[in-house]
Amino acid sequence: VMASVAHLQEEKLRLQEELLGLQEKLTAQENKEISRSLQLQSQVETLKAKLLEQAQEISRLRSELGGTDVEKDLLATENERLRQEMKAREGELQELRRQQQQQVPFQDCTHLQENTELQEQLSQLQQEAEETRAKLAELDLEVQQKTNRLAEVELRLKDSLAERAEEEERLSRRLRDSQETIASLKSQPQQIKYIIKTVEVESAKAKQALCESQSRNQYLQEQVGMQRQVLKEMEQQLQSSQKTVAQLRAQIMMYEAELERAHGQMLEEMQAMEEEKNRAIEEAFSRAQVEMKAVHENLAGVRTNLLTLQPALRTLTHDYNSLKRQVRNFPLLLQETLQSARAEISQAIEEVNTTNRELLRKYRRELQLRKKCHNELVRLKGNIRVFGRVRPITKEDGEGPEAANAVTFDDDDDAVLHLLHKGKQVSFELDKVFPPKASQEEVGAAVHAVGMSWECNHLLTLPGPPQVFQEVQALVTSCIDGYNVCIFAYGQTGAGKTYTMEGTATNPGINQRALQLLFSEVRGKAADWDYAISVSAAEIYNEALRDLLGKEPQEKLEIKLCPDGSGQLYVPGLTELRVQSVEDINKIFEFGHVNRATECTNLNEHSSRSHALLIVTVRGLDRSTGLRTTGKLNLVDLAGSERVGRSGAEGSRLREAQHINKSLSALGDVIYALRSRQGHVPFRNSKLTYLLQDSLSGDSKTLMMVQVSPAEKNTSETLCSLKFAERVRSVELGPVSRKAELASWPSHEQLEVTEASLGDSPGTAAPPARGHVSPVPGQLSSRVASIRRKLQASG
Ligand code: ADP
Ligand code: MG
């Protein structure tokens, strides 16, 4: 027990020591805590002081800002003052302008210009003032922004201060807590002392006491452990609070720096703004001053100008008044002048009218005269036309001087042709001459012209290359109206007769074109008329007439008088075929050719020795009136006109030549007689003229197309042909011609012989023609008569 007591005492001692150590530690800890809290308190104090300082700084800054506001107000008032001054100047200017306008209505434009310039300057000044004002407003805005920012910073500072106070409060609370704990801990060791004392006094109860003390010891130990833990926690709390303090301090530092920077920036900006403001105000002011000065100067100039303008105005007013007077007098003057002018004009018109009337009267008289002359001319010329057609030089003409061109034309007169014969130029005048370049069309048109107006061929000639068929058209169409028409192709063999009448397959001649024209004309009149076109083809060879469309082409046909006593001629047995199209015509032409070819060995030779006739009959019936018309178109390709047999032609060749000669002479006689309006026309002298009697007499129309070769070697034949043409065409008047009209036409051979004595060759008496009074026979010149006798003897 002693041992245990000792042990317990030892233990107690140890515990007491330990307690003492703990107590010491506690006090140390307490001291530390107190010092730390003191430190913190001092820190809080310094922070508070700083805060106060900053608040003071802020209030100072605010007061400074208030100062700039005052400056701004000052500027605004200055501005206002300037504006009012400007307004006053404007008013003055306007007043001046008004006065000017009242005083000087006729002022020249320099003043106006000055005024406008001044106005412009004024408006410029106003604009600048406006700009300055805008700048001021901008500065105001900036100041406002800065103030806002400052308020923000203050707010943030306040927040941080509140945070700091809170933290302080928390820390002091903790300090209190820990002090309380320490106090409680201080009270506990007295209990332990008491227990130990009891142990000392009551050793009897030692064991129990020991136990108790042991348990108590345990409890104490636990308590100590708890205390230790509490201490540890406290330490940790202290550490964390230290950390927080450090953080807070850093934050404060940061805020301070930021505040410093903001303050500096603000100061700088304020400075800059102030400078700018001052500069702007100075500039505006100086500019306004300068401009005001200029305005004043201008005003002075305007005033002096006004002074000089007044006299000018006076003279202008004077001028104006005099002009006004003149204008007042003007209408009277004008009226007078107008009246006199009117009188003059009406007189002139009267004069012109009388002259016109006189002229009209004269013109009418001239017209009548012209008509009379024209009628006379038509009567003289009759219904017969003679055209010449010169073919181009062809390959058949050969080469060298023999094939040279001997025919020339007159550029201005298309009726004239010149022939160079044996070095001498002979000129001929016909109704129209077609040069080699004339196309097939044109010849047709020439006959058209003949049909339309017999007296003015030349006028109808169109510019450009002549076209043959154009000249024939109207002649052909007059058949439809019931006229008889004859178209002859005359000339030596190879001169182009067949080419003109028949043409080639690709370039048809008058025959085909005439029929085509008839078809189209008949078609055009089909509404009122019924027409029938029929065709006969015949040949006269050696004075024998043969049907080329008949079954017996060799059969000789006779020409007989109609038994009805009408005096009309007809050919019994002559085939007449109805045609309705170009195809029909072509078939007929072909058939005629075949018939002609079968009866001879050499078609070319044969055709040049015979006359080929194409007789087109057009019968019309007017459906409404029942009127009937019959027109005949005779297209004749005559036999070659060249002289044969002079150098000993014999037999059939000579017979042919005689027949041809006879019939061509007879044709010439008939045409000449018709054209010179002789009483007797010798139709019966040949089969050809007898057959065509109907179509040559009365109001029939005849065209003789004289074909000519231009080659040098043909000139003597060409000369004969052209003489024939001229002879046919010529009209002789007076008593001499009256005699001559009875003369027979000289034969082709005679033409050459009597070259020197043309015009006085009388002929034998011709047998009387149907319906004509037999004329008194004339005298033949003895020379011609002897030639004729010779010829007849040889025939
Ligand atoms: P004719 O019938 O008078 O004997 P042709 O008509 O047979 O003469 O013509 C003889 C040649 O001349 C033919 O080859 C023909 O083609 C040609 N000829 C005639 N006239 C012309 C002309 N105007 N243009 C072109 N060639 C022509
Ligand atoms: Mg021929």
TrEMBL record:
The keyword Nucleotide-binding applies. Residues 786-795 have a biased composition (Basic residues). GO terms for molecular function: ATP binding; microtubule binding; microtubule motor activity. Residues 5-188, 231-287 form a coiled coil. Its main location: cytoplasm. It is found in: Cytoplasm, Cytoskeleton. GO terms for cellular component: microtubule. GO terms for biological process: microtubule-based movement. Keywords: ATP-binding, Coiled coil, Cytoplasm, Cytoskeleton, Microtubule, Motor protein, Nucleotide-binding. Residues 752-795 are annotated as: Disordered. This is Kinesin-like protein. It comes from Rostratula benghalensis.
